[in-house]
## 1
Amino acid sequence: MNQRPLETTATGPAFVPGPVLLLGAPGVGKGKQAQILMAQFGIPQISTGDLLRSNIAKGTELGMQAKSTMEQGKLVSDELVNQMVAERLKQPDAVRGYILDGFPRTMPQAVWLDSHLGTKALPVVAVSMTVDYDQLLQRITGRRTCTVCKHIYNVFSNPPKVAGVCDFDCAPLEQRADDIETVFAERMKTFAAQTAPVIEHYRVLGRFEEVDGQRPVAEVTSAIEAALRRLRGARA
Ligand code: AP5
Ligand code: MG
């Protein structure tokens, strides 16, 4: 991917933020920023949306259970998603930290995560991004994703060099089934009812910062990195 090189020292990446939650509405930039931060810090992006879509593509039982719920802009059950996250967190690449993208997004998921991680692991830090409704709608309807490397484009703000084709591996780009205006409206209602309280939960806990996601991608990345350093008490 076309990203900045890893910030390294002789012993490895200079700063690793540990477990991070990226929070925000549909289209706010969670996936785009998580891909950049993953390359920057050498820790995995764990996107529950991507994991569910991968299950749908493979035709698994979980994918079959999730498909119509996702296409309606509603949330998959907490039980299924928590179990999927529990399995993913056991993978060895998650030991030094991870970027959770799109999870938790209900209060039961947040309560489950807080107790699942307990006090043994470094506590999570949360960064919430904000973008206004009209900009979100444009981002959602303009989004295209590489079918192979999953790089995220936007036909309005960040188009590929050749329309419909990934710059990095020449694979075709696809539009998500839930990226249409009517489903977006439903996803926003779901976000307001079920995920906004999760953001307030982490705001009250205190290991939390809010970032203006309306700015260009690189500026948002810098703001998130600065927030993570402050939240972890690291030098700038
Ligand atoms: P999920 O895949 O998580 O979708 P979402 O939360 O609706 O978020 P998006 O992926 O749409 O947006 P994003 O913030 O990642 O934006 P992106 O970076 O791509 O979930 C999908 C569904 O799965 C849910 O509806 C639910 O059914 C189910 N699900 C998932 N997790 C679940 C859970 N925990 N519990 C229950 N169900 C769950 O950017 C969007 C576009 O904007 C791109 O084109 C990008 O290029 C562009 N862009 C990004 N940043 C900028 C910028 N700064 N300036 C200009 N353009 C930008
Ligand atoms: Mg996403």
## 2
Amino acid sequence: MKAIVTGCAGFIGSHLTERLLAEGDEVLGIDAFTPYYLRADKEANLAGVAGDPRFALVEDDLSTADLEQLMKGVDVVFHLAAQPGVRVSFGDGFNDYVRDNIVATQRVLEGALAAGCGRVVMASSSSVYGDAEAFPCIEAETATRPRSPYGVSKRACEDLANVYRSDRLQVAALRYFTVYGPRQRPDMAFRRLCEAACGGEPFELYGDGSQSRDFTHVDDVVDATFRCAHARHLPAVANVGGGREASMAAVITELEDLLGECIPMHRFEVQRGDVRRTSADTCVARTTLGWRPRVALRAGLASELDWVADRAAARSLVSVRNG
Ligand code: NAD
Ligand code: UGA
């Protein structure tokens, strides 16, 4: 199978690229290396696949690239590229969300249709639900009422998928729930918590820690996404949640327990756009994809902590060597 992974240099996209190559597939990765976080981090994300002859990288922007040309002969497009992040999507920053999410997604769908590539699997988000009235959120029942401009952009991408879905183009929108694990983005809570635990800046806790998330390990997210390549009936929309809803306070306690020490912390006010709670009903993904989450929160946290600790150790070695 030949696949395209947009956003291949990002957190989730780089893991998906590795999984596809491990399964024997050919991958054309597209990434614009947007400046949301360090280019060096994105290059490091791709270090494991860079020399693989079945992997090719195109550095280009989905909002302007000739996508029909790139998608010719491709069996499935995994569309993960986006401007992510809930809290910074307010203000002028929203321009990036319009270009990298809405415009890019419409162009990906047009490109796939024109190139005759029959299947697009795209990353949506739990943020389309906003503050739901009842939990867990069920795709066909829970209203989508995003509370952030980011969530609005992701819901618009789902609306675009509904416009383009046809006999000629199958499109699945996977609603990922707060994803964590090695290579997590530097703006996200677990990454910052682990960095604080490894001697970095104190963790800034927004609110009192009672907000909760259905945290999902990246291996589980990749597994659900990969299964969409081969599923007989692709779901139009499916929640991908780890089934391990936990409050931030509980996560901090768990990590401190793993470490055997307290994590330095400052408290800040609740951030604009932050929802109180997320929780996924995953029956659709279970029945259509044969998927279920497998990584327990404590084991998943340990995997991210190990990755952060290895990076911190490598950096201190470099600074010792440089005098
Ligand atoms: P990420 O920022 O690490 O990866 C996104 C990648 O897309 C980046 O490498 C970026 O350079 C690239 N990109 C952005 N705009 C582009 C454009 N116009 N053209 C080409 N490349 C572009 O983010 P991530 O956390 O890996 O998220 C991947 C996807 O999953 C996104 O669609 C995000 O909205 C969605 N999602 C993530 C989470 C999460 O918890 N991380 C949860 C729900 C949904
Ligand atoms: C995450 C991703 O960042 C979004 O891209 C994604 O779309 C969304 O999940 C989703 O599930 O749809 P979020 O749940 O805010 O968004 O994930 P984190 O950034 O890890 O934050 C989790 C909680 O920790 C939030 O309540 C946040 O306010 C808090 N937090 C975050 C802190 O207290 N301190 C920080 O430094 C960062």
